[in-house]
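explain this:
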Amino acid sequence: KAFRRAVTLDKGFAAAQIGLARTLLQQLDWGSDDGEKLIDESAALLQSASTRDTSSAEYYSGIGVLASLRNDISGAIRAHRRSVQLAPQDPDTHYRLGVQLAQMTQTEEALKEFRRSTELKPDYVDAYRWMARVAAFSGKPDEARNHATTTIDLSPNSARVRISAGQLAMWQGNYVVADSQVQKAIALQPKAYRQKGLAGTIALFQRR
């Protein structure tokens, strides 16, 4: 609301435009029903801000998120690299770059960025989740398990963490562990369909 009010009072306030754009994109990440509307408004805000301020990591972070939502992963990587250059001590900039690199299967560089983000923020659960996923697909099962264990230690009551650990165990063929983690996720979020569907998939594999 503060960003919205600031933009309303001063349409040339670039920092407020960038802040509002990033806020809107975060709402989209959480599953907003007005996806296209939020993307268009964010793009317009960032375009307006670009005529006055392109020197902040926040601006390039917003550009990167917007590019990713439009499936322009190369553009997202370029923007997030610039964000890292401008704010190298911000763990979020490294995390966001790591996510995009992972999606382009640039696994070693992605792991490097995730590791840096956890150096700067040792309790960065999402970075450890991504490291577990990337390590698993890079043929590093021990590292993947270690990262998954860390996420559980840091956030034992997160259904998302339990689901990620369950998926990892399933990919590695450990269906007993996978089922255990998914059942814990169901206990944490009984009405969520995703974990119930995953539990069904694991059950099918267990019957083979």
Notes: The mean pLDDT is 79. The chain is about 80% helix and 0% strand. The two ends are 54 Å apart (CA to CA). The first helix runs from residue 2 to 9.
